Amino acid sequence: MSRKYRQPGYQDSDRERRPKPPPRPKGPAGRVETKFHLVTRCNNCAAEIQVMESVRPTDTCRNCGTDLHTCRNCLNFDPSARNECTKAVDVRVSNKSANNLCPLFAPKILIEKQGSGAPPPKVNSHRQAFLDLFKK
Predict the structure, then answer these.
(1) Total Cβ atoms within 10 A of residue 132
(2) How far is CA 135 from CA 45, 63, 106, 125, 132, in A?
(3) Strands 36-41 and 48-49
(4) Residue 37, beta-bridge partner list
(5) CA distances from 81 to 70, 76, 86, 129 (A)
């Protein structure tokens, strides 16, 4: 006999009984611990920047050589906001990737998940593989 709705109660004897699944083990031994860390990255090449507190206007990326004191590396940068900045800016900076002397600059600090013991991937591995294709 089949019924459209499966409310408990009347005619439960003909319903298939499924065994309950065994309970999951709980506690620190059965769980993988996830760790997070704060990191600042270059907007151009995604290399990790060691200076997290303050970035001087003359600082450049060690990996690609681009300027770090730019709007794209700023915490207040938002492409959808007016003048592309969440703060009230008097003068719009036209080139967001160029070095500027904005007094509202704060480095963008990201929260990233650390891996489970695997070594971090090399930053330029894909770019280097691409360049190796065209070597003579």
Answers:
(1) 8
(2) 22, 21, 40, 15, 5
(3) antiparallel
(4) 112
(5) 17, 10, 6, 37
pLDDT band at 19 (very low <50, low <70, confident <90, very high): confident
Residue identified by tokens 């003579």 is 136
Token pair in block for residue 109: 């600090």
**Looking at this protein, which amino acid is placed at residue 105?**
F
Cα distances from 120 to residues 34, 42, 102, 115, 117, in angstroms, run 15, 16, 33, 8, 9
Whether pTM > 0.90 for this model: the answer is no
Q: How confident is the model at residue 64 (pLDDT cuts 50, 70, 90)?
A: confident
